[in-house]
Request: fold
Amino acid sequence: MKRFATIIMTVWIATLSALPAIALDSDSIAMMPTDLILDRASHLDESGMFGESSSALESLSRLGRDLTAAQRVRLSYGLAHAYYGMGIYSRAIDHVFEVLNLDPDGSLARFDVGARLILADIYVRFRAPDRAANVLKKALARLEKADMSKIERDNMLQRIHQQWSSVHGARGEWNEFLKSLAMADSLGEHTSADRLRRQLDYAIYYSQTGDYKLSGRYFERVINSPGWSYDKMAAYCDYAQLLLDLGDHRRALSVADDGLAALEGHGNDEMRAELMHVRGVALNSLGNPAEAVECLEKSRQLNDSILRWHSSQSVLQACRDYELDLEAKSKIAAEKQRRRQAMTIKIIAAVALLILGLAIFLWRRQARSRRDVHSLELLMAEQQDTHRRRLSDTMGDLDRKRRNLMSLTLKLAQLNEVIERAVGDNSSGDAAGRLDTLRSEIRRIGLNRNVWDIFDVLCEQTSPDFFKRLTQLHPDLTRGETRMCAYIFMNLGTKEIATMTNRSTRTVETVKYRLNKKLAPPDGISLGDYLRSLDTPA
Reply:
């Protein structure tokens, strides 16, 4: 009985694998092995059923199964390719960078490179060919380090050079476009899909260089090819637009109708909107304005739906954010690797030195005298005393400067109190007497004219690391803002600062609020704690 059940299960799985065009429901997915689901989703993707493929993979991710590293990479790559095929680029790039963040090993490098190819094509579509070129350079570097056979490497190189042709086309570099196509032709095994893509590229090349007759022949070869493919649908869109631009509205209408029929059952609103627009313009030129308006309205609605998923700027910005995050993670990983290597070298060097020292010790143990040991001890004691004296002198100098700073701060506060009393004295009497009193009070405090310069010098001497890092991180601070930072760093309260600077507490609070916005300390950290954290060497 058990053997019979095994046979039935094997036949059932084989039957499902042999029917790639049939969508998967959630019940069957829950019963199927993970690798089989991934294979079936890949078959659906190749058949142009991107919606069904993405639904199957999303259902798999919701099951909460424990996936291996290879399965996680395949799942993320499958979702990226499916959403890319549907034109939902904002969702596609999420999964593209999931693949890149997983950092697969050599056996999974083809998914890493494939994800970069998707990202490069998205950049080309959103008119950012320079960023696409950078992505392709990284894909080549990734491929050089990958552990794969020559045939696999050549196939991946063929796809990379194929994508390079799109970059050159977007830049208008048509000579380089042909060179990239020639490189792609010289590599790989050239499947029917590769040959179809090459014919589409030549059609685009001749349409851009003015040979519309030859371009039309290539477009028709792609359109009349058997089966369904993304490149075939792209040919429908480009050829219909070319015919429309050339004024052959009747032929453009026919190609657009054929393309819309071929798109049935395949989710790509972007292509559907483009073909609807061509159809509407052609119908209007052929004297059918009512149906033309209906087609143009449908095209507009589809474009509005697409814009709800993504816009040119948001997609490019999301890609940039992901790239920066990935670059930061790569730097962290490289730094960890460097530290591990440095630690390994240090350990090896330490062990070698230990062995060498032990050998020397054993070899010279009898020759070492007590006098040498005593001399070494005396020398070490002398050096320690020298270090202690220098440290004591340095700490004493720092303490003196801090006491001078606090004394100067106190004198500034006293001076401001005297000035406030003098300003607030409304009593009638001898003005000359009050002026003499004010002068004597100021002389008693003992401040000279360059008091603020002395204050700044003392602050920078007592806390050089603080002022250095503050200037590096916030070079646009004014002198007054720098002094306010020093007050807050010294842990002076609002009232104390107001007394020193002869301002109201409300004014000081306003200045501190503006300073807090300008410095923008991290969430959960007060301005004072943030400033005091800068008092460390950079």
Residues 370-424 form the longest helix (55 residues). The mean pLDDT is 77. The radius of gyration is 38 Å. Residues 29 and 37 are 7 Å apart (CA to CA).
